[in-house]
């Protein structure tokens, strides 16, 4: 439910030839601490070492952010063998990498900086701890996502079982059902993940989980904010990239929470106006790797076609920050 002090839905009466639109802006939205840290690492590395600075994979999943860093001198690559200048630093993305990647960089005598989100690194440490304790590990996540590839790459091949769905959880046949442990990708649907964990706990009562859940605070907070406003909206827009896991989950959460239409958009230029004909209330949020400037673009675009009243609904306050690598903190001090 929305807080009691929120304004009721506006009607669709015309003013200055444009229909009225109540736009509900959710908070928290946009950049999380891990994304902010990763972008700072690239910017500070460029400042300290000059151009080029190589970045393995998109530093975060947002084309606008990547393009901005590219104009400043960042060169984005997928594999280390694409780098010709071994004197330039290479940065590993916020999603984390398999252990083989820094080992490969060492063999090539490369200088690298790790921008892995500390909350992803936490999952890596959990995987290593469970493996050291002789436990069979289940990872709940999406196959092919860079974070999942990085997490599974912390341990030898075939060590971790990946499950993606409730059906996977029901059908899993572990080798040692009495010595199981589970970990999760940090950007999953809170509700979907709970359903899978509940099944695992029912099937394997001795299964161990993390001391503190692996889905990160930012993912959870953004989903809760969407749940709060979705039932009040005729449509809801999530600003984010199509390869952003946390952004795609927000679209799903909005739909399941009662919003008739929820869409994922990268930029205002991607708006299909036929999707928003006749609406009187629009929800607007942004995934954890989408900057505020893209949200502002959307608001401005709707302002050209509607008389927009913007209301904000805040469901949590975020004040988390993560330390930069020491070598860059020295430059920043």
3D architecture notes:
With 333 residues, the protein is α/β, with parallel strands linked by helices. It folds into 3 domains: 14-31 and 217-314, Cobalt-precorrin-4 Transmethylase, domain 1 (3-Layer(aba) Sandwich), CATH 3.40.1010; 33-117, Rossmann fold (3-Layer(aba) Sandwich); 119-215, 4-hydroxy-3-methylbut-2-enyl diphosphate reductase, catalytic domain (Cobalt-precorrin-4 Transmethylase, domain 1). 36% of the residues lie in helices and 19% in strands. It has helices at residues 33-49, 63-72, 100-107, 118-132, 146-152, 166-171, 190-203, 217-229, 245-256, 292-303, 326-332; strands spanning 14-15, 18-27, 53-56, 74-77, 90-92, 112-114, 136-140, 160-163, 180-184, 235-239, 262-265, 281-286, 307-314. Strands 1, 2, 10, 11, 12 and 13 form a 6-stranded mixed sheet that branches. A hairpin with a 2-residue loop joins strand 1 and strand 2 (18-27). It is flat.
Task: Using brief descriptors, characterize the structure shown.
333 residues, alpha/beta, Cobalt-precorrin-4 Transmethylase, domain 1, Rossmann fold, 3 domains, six-stranded mixed beta sheet, four-stranded parallel beta sheet, 11 helices, 19% strand, flat
**CATH class term of the largest domain:** Alpha Beta
Number of domains: 3
Let me know the average pLDDT. Answer: 94
> Strand content of the residues, in percent?
15-25%
Count of alpha/pi helices: 11
Describe this structure in a few short sentences:
This protein is 36% helix and 19% strand.
Topology:
Blueprint: E1 14-15, E2 18-27, H1 33-49, E3 53-56, H2 63-72, E4 74-77, E5 90-92, H3 100-107, E6 112-114, H4 118-132, E7 136-140, H5 146-152, E8 160-163, H6 166-171, E9 180-184, H7 190-203, H8 217-229, E10 235-239, H9 245-256, E11 262-265, E12 281-286, H10 292-303, E13 307-314, H11 326-332
Parallel strand pairs: 2-12, 2-13, 3-4, 3-5, 5-6, 7-8, 7-9, 10-11, 10-12
Antiparallel strand pairs: 1-2
